[in-house]
Design a protein that fits this description.
By secondary structure, this protein is an alpha+beta fold. The protein is built from nine helices and ten strands. A four-stranded antiparallel β-sheet has the order 1-6-7-5, with no helix packed on it. A four-stranded antiparallel β-sheet has the order 2-3-4-8, with helices on one face. It is elongated, with a radius of gyration of 21 Å. The two termini are 32 Å apart. Its cofactor is Zn(2+).
């Protein structure tokens, strides 16, 4: 699933390539992906792309006041095409293509654009055309952006105070902090040397400061690694930069212990026992239930 660093990199990528082009048309292949009807997608035709922004994990293409916004969900991705002039007309079907956005030609005559695709059977990719990003419910309810200057240790302390939620779940909650998902919450907690099952309200002032530093540095480092890469290369960069997430059974680069995995909510998490839990493996509660 694309998270804050990848979506930020996609936003920068589109700023360099799409801004200044007019939208020739938007072809919706997966009709369930389109979540709005007013304005219609046809309203984007002929309108110039004037900016690209990110709201948490939402990508916002500003077309002179009309906003084409997408959330790529778990299996979605954006593919840039240097030339769509010869592309075959899209037809609804079972393939991964969900939406195609065609842009006006470059000086060399090539008509670029981008496609939104979604792998897997669970189709959750969402597209909105709105006049104000706040009209998108997921954006209106977002928590603070962790890369904003206003996201201070004091703000984080206020978020954590009194919460009986496990810190792993809290970091993934978009209404609490925007943009962090399953992968980067694992990475943040590894950097902070903190158990994913630790209760948020039990953190000391020192631990809150350390967690804040881990959030900011982890995300900024990931954005820095992704900056300047082509959209097609971002997935590989994300995977190569992760130190614990998705690396079950491998050695921790920090201490050499074996990275372990436990189930969490609707997915799984990875962690290092030596770095994060005092050397004690966490109980896999879902597996324990199955064994009863």
């Amino acid at each position: 699933m694309p998270e804050l660093p990848e979506v930020e990199a996609l936003a920068e990528f589109l700023r360099e390539r799409a801004v200044g082009h007019a939208v020739l048309g938007v072809d919706v292949v997966a009709f369930q992906a389109l979540k709005t009807v007013d304005p219609p997608v046809s309203a984007l035709g002929g309108v110039e792309v004037t900016g690209v922004a990110r709201h948490g994990k939402f990508l916002d293409v500003d077309c002179d006041g009309l906003h084409f916004i997408t959330h790529l969900a778990r299996g979605g991705w954006l593919r840039w095409r240097d030339d769509l002039s010869g592309a075959k007309p899209v037809r609804p079907g079972k393939g991964p293509l969900a939406v195609r956005v065609r842009l006006s030609p470059d000086e060399d005559g090539r008509a670029p654009g981008f496609e939104l695709t979604e792998a897997g059977t669970q189709k959750r990719l969402a597209v909105y055309v709105v006049r104000d990003p706040a009209e998108v419910p997921g954006i209106a309810g977002l928590g603070p952006d962790p890369l904003a200057e206003s996201f201070t240790p004091e703000v984080l302390a206020g978020i954590l105070g009194g919460s009986r939620t496990q810190i792993k779940g809290l970091l993934r909650d978009q209404k609490v902090i925007a943009g962090i998902g399953n992968a980067y919450s694992d990475e943040v907690l590894h950097v902070a040397k903190m158990s994913p099952f630790k209760i948020a309200a039990t953190l000391t002032a020192e631990q809150v400061a350390g967690l804040h530093e881990a959030i900011v540095t982890t995300l900024r480092d990931a954005v820095g690694r992704a900056r300047g890469l082509a959209a097609k290369d971002l997935k590989a960069e994300k995977k190569s930069g992760l130190r614990v997430h998705g690396r079950t059974g491998e050695k921790c680069d920090v201490c050499g212990d074996t990275i372990r995995e436990v189930s969490f909510a609707d997915s799984s998490l990875q962690y290092c026992p030596t770095c994060q839990t005092g050397g004690k493996p966490l109980a896999d509660r879902r597996l324990s239930k199955l064994l009863k």
